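Hey Z.,

So I finally got round to the iron/sulfur cluster thing we talked about over coffee. Here's the setup:
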Amino acid sequence: MSAKKTKTIKTIKIDVDKCNGCRACEVICSSFHAIPKYSNNNPARSRIRVIHEPLRDVYVPVYAGDYAVAECAGRDKYIIDGKEYDECAFCRAACPSREEFKEPDSGLPLKCDMCEGEEEPLCVKWCLVDALTIEEREVEIDDEEEEKRDEIEIGLESLVNRFGIDKVSDLIAQISKK
Amino acid sequence: MRYAETGFNLEIDLTRGNIEKVASDPRDTELYLGGLGTNAKIIWDRVPPEVEAFSPENLLIFGAGLLCGTPATGCNRTIVSTISPQTKLLAFSMMGGFWAPELKYAGYDKVILRGKSPDLVYIWIKDDKVELRDASHLAGKGSIETAELIREELNEPKAQVAAIGMAGENRVFYASVEQGRSSASRGGIGAVMGDKGVKAIVVRGTKDLNVADPEKYMELCNDVLKYIKHREDNPIPGVMPILAGLGSPQEMKVHDEKWHTENFMWGNSRVRRRDFWNEEVEKEWTETMEKARTRLISCFNCPMKCGATISMPGLPTYMMKCFTKLTYTMGAFSDLDFGLRIAQKATEYGVDGFSAPQVMAFALELLENGILTDKDFPDMPEDNEGRFFYLLDKIVRREGIGDVLADGTYWAAKKIGNGADAYAHNNIKKHEQLPLKLSMLNPVYFLMYATGEKMNITQIEGQFPQAPFATREEREAFVSDWIQVPDEKFKQILLDWEFRGENSNPYYPTVEMACDIVDWQETMHYIDDALGQCAGLSSFPLKPPYHIHNYPEFISAGTGMEMDKDKLTEAAKRYRTLVRAINIRRGMRRKDEKPPANHWKKRFPELEEKLLDEYYKLKGWNKDGIPTRESLQQLGLGYVSEDFLQRGILSKDDEAADQDTAAETSVEA
Ligand code: SF4
Ligand code: SF4
Ligand code: SF4
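And the result:
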């Protein structure tokens, strides 16, 4: 039997009605994750994306979640408040069907890390209109928490899925010889 | 490595279909910063005064500001520059929205168009891939419609589109370039785009944009955000609602239109309706707006939400910002419902929201007064609103009388003759102005109207309160945290400024003070236009987050160039003088620097002359408004001075040239 513990989890609450489509969240996220920090920015590398279609009044900020190997089948449409949304508009996955949440050059998947090391998520701080706010809650966790997969592993897996295991291992072998 | 800018321009020769990526000279960035500054340098170098708006040699430059695309809040302006068909001078118009940052992420600072495409095309820029694509299927389509169709056919929902509508295609002299929620409207830039055969410029960029000193730059950005919050929580007391906060201004949010509807003129800038605003109107207009407005929306990286999405029943959705909300309504003596309906059409057609309604009201005035007759308006509907829709259609199609009106009130009056020019009464430098007529001359506004080369008062005014505060306490409170002033003396000017008595308009602010105030106001606008910063967070509102004290730090941390207050002020003066030089070479002189004769009832010809004299002196211009050899040399613009000598615009003996021309000057009182 594993002992039950609790921990505080911070999540970001999204109020789509307050979003004005400015993409400040994309700017600061990509700037924060630049190496060195803040040295450049590029919304196409951001881990939050604002899916927005002004003429249909669709404004949905979405955080990058886990990487999906394949696109899902039979996507639905949602009607909310008379507005039609594509299911993808709410999906957090980096998946083969779209360019969201992938590094523009390498195609490697991106994932929101809640701005590790910062006092608060920066997209929340930069969203002055409160479309993004922080919410804290207590959750029970198992002792043997599912081990955290690191970025390299996720990245490598996506490469394997894209190019095949042979190609990737060949390449790794080649690089290590250099 | 280049920082904040990409260091590359796209040069597109439309005649030959040739596209080149050209590295820009970093020394030009030092001297002219970017945006308007470097646009002006290119136009000076490459567009001689013989070149007309519709010559193939005319350039049309879409320049992203120097800091656009960096994390600096509100830095998103595209500065579009060309020779205007209407004024025949340099036109430059700033559009907000999302286009300029996207261009930076694609790896370019400017798109420079020359020549003319034989067929209608659009330009598709995706990072390193640039192509001209057939747009024949988009001919006659609305600007917003076009943007949607292009995004669909390219399957690029994130592409940013700057497009013209029918007005641009048909070279209407006040055609705009539309970009979703924003537009470049003044000066007929859309007509030049249409003349070049370009329906749209579409851009998608996915590259990094670097800054030189990341930690410092982020600290500056965070300070700006903090100050914006502070200003949002502390609106300025004692001024009208749209001036209390930041933004450019927030017309879509504000329902109380008492000030505009009772102080601005209706019709062809004629009639003031002092008791117009009442509860009933307020209720009706608020309802109209609330129903139409689906959401308040911002430009790229800005929290201010100056724009709105507007859906009128039965009409396609569009986006609106600023004062277009009321220009059609007031031009037609109608209501907000009509204003928002016709603005939908006008946005799709792509026309300037100041000029278009004024031209239409002018036409109807000519009809009323028998200068035009019913024959000129075949099949025109009887009702007032119907007439405006009719006229708008005629104009953008250049059909019948519309063909004449499409050139704006100045040129239309010339063609129509028969005394029509008395009705084209609200122009400066051949360009329609805000519909405003006042009583007592205001020396600061006199100078801004007369000498502004951005052609619109909102693009030069700002920072300094428009009117004195009533009490000493209010004034003291205002100056107590006025950190934006470039010099402490401005605080004293405001403290001593009264509604009545010695220290009131027109003789106070004194000539010297008025010159200093206008110079400060103009300098800040020119800095914004080079950096790509929205005036709504900088030069336009009272107490903005960006000012002369933090801008130099932004520029050094962003670009890596050394910068301080003096160097920045000098750079702004340099390209401001270059803008003037371009116009001087095109024939603009002191005689053209006149606000409309009826702008104020009470005029003071002697004082006005003195104001111009002193302001010209402060700017380093001679009595005719021409930059002197000495000031050109000081600014490193020796090449301008040589050109002026060669053309006989200046003579070796500066002073002598002054004497000849000063006699031509007159102010209509
Ligand atoms: S910063 Fe806020 S308002 Fe702006 S796009 Fe992101 S979520 Fe929307
Ligand atoms: S929390 Fe941080 S990492 Fe996650 S989307 Fe926001 S800015 Fe990016
Ligand atoms: S202040 Fe208004 S107009 Fe200016 S950038 Fe922000 S939203 Fe756009």
